[in-house]
């Protein structure tokens, strides 16, 4: 599926099978999935969706109906929006799905996904700059006293330092508040006058109420809490101000109420919560490190199936924000993703069916590059034993990574993580990281060759051809 017309046709077919445009509240997408918010899930023709050429699989959740497309999901999404479906990323009105009763855990996961996932490219880019700096000093390309090094250093720090601002932008969309006010309120925590005052150690107060001297650069939780509470303040202010004065009074009152509240109450509470999360991370990465990495790596395919992998995002983001490194979540994801790739490539090697070879090869490459849904739904789950091999391989390599305390200096969950092992821990960490990646690929590959009989095609040739294309990177 390569042409715009084909994407347009697929979009029309998907909309038809989810109950038509009148059944869709809004749509968003991630790396591989269209995520629909529907009025009535019972109107969905699930079997019809699964049989569509270009649809890898579906994943209904309590808050979204997810249609798994593959790496070209953005092109299909554009055609879906062109059909008149509301773009959930740009919609400011309250959606029907948000009015529906959903569990608190699902709401938290949805909020985390909306607020934090869009930040990952910026964090990855900043992390790669840090890797370049580390390599530059290791191989004596640059002196850490040179102007070039210092400029690159603050370029690499920028995404982490201003993380609260990034969160304010994305959280304002999720909580339906004015984005400019959200940025200003959170920006107060990073204002040079405030940070200088905090650094001086002098007491700070407002109307006689003490303000804790806390630094909020690179923090996560204070910004999220701020925008969440600000959403209630903004709605409350809007109810009490007269229509003729809203344009002046609303933003002024929101700022005057929220800003002191953030400095006196919300910020310090968020800081304590962040410290608690950091303590948990240190516990998991320390005394229980090798067990946790192994268990998490082995369980990752099942976590991805439920979409709960987004709930892990705050943990690795908080770790990078606090230390610039991560040794648990992303390390486990690297093991699990490469294991899916190794198992899928073994299926491709063992099968004599050209269509199975095509889909398994494309899915394997996709998994190695960090997108596992095509491999998971199209290959390993389908044939069962490759999934077992991937779980065993990821668990073993995760255990090794935990014992060696493999550390990533870049937010990355694919084969490109090989660039993220270089840092303060030196060559030993690079060697351990590379060995971990080799184990993640090779063990599932070999196990699959032994466990899996020759895979046979069980779907139509047209569907296989399209799904193979959908899985490609």
UniProtKB/TrEMBL annotation:
GO terms for cellular component: plasma membrane. It comes from the Bacteria. The keyword Chaperone does not apply. Residues 110-463 form the PTS EIIC type-1 domain. It is found in: Cell membrane. It is a multi-pass membrane protein. Keywords: Cell membrane, Kinase, Membrane, Phosphotransferase system, Sugar transport, Transferase, Transmembrane, Transmembrane helix, Transport. The keyword Cell membrane applies. The chain crosses the membrane at residues 122-142, 154-170, 177-194, 214-233, 253-282, 288-308, 315-339, 359-380, 387-410, 430-451. Residues 8-90 form the PTS EIIB type-1 domain. The active site is at residue 30. InterPro entries: Glu_permease_IIB, PTrfase_EIIB_Cys, PTS_EIIC, PTS_EIIC_1, PTS_IIB_1, PTS_Sugar-Specific_Components. One of its GO terms (biological process) is phosphoenolpyruvate-dependent sugar phosphotransferase system. Its main location: membrane. GO terms for molecular function: kinase activity; protein-N(PI)-phosphohistidine-sugar phosphotransferase activity; protein-phosphocysteine-trehalose phosphotransferase system transporter activity. SUPFAM superfamilies: Glucose permease domain IIB (SSF55604). This is PTS system, glucose-like IIB component. The lineage of its organism: Bacteria, Bacillati, Bacillota, Bacilli, Lactobacillales.
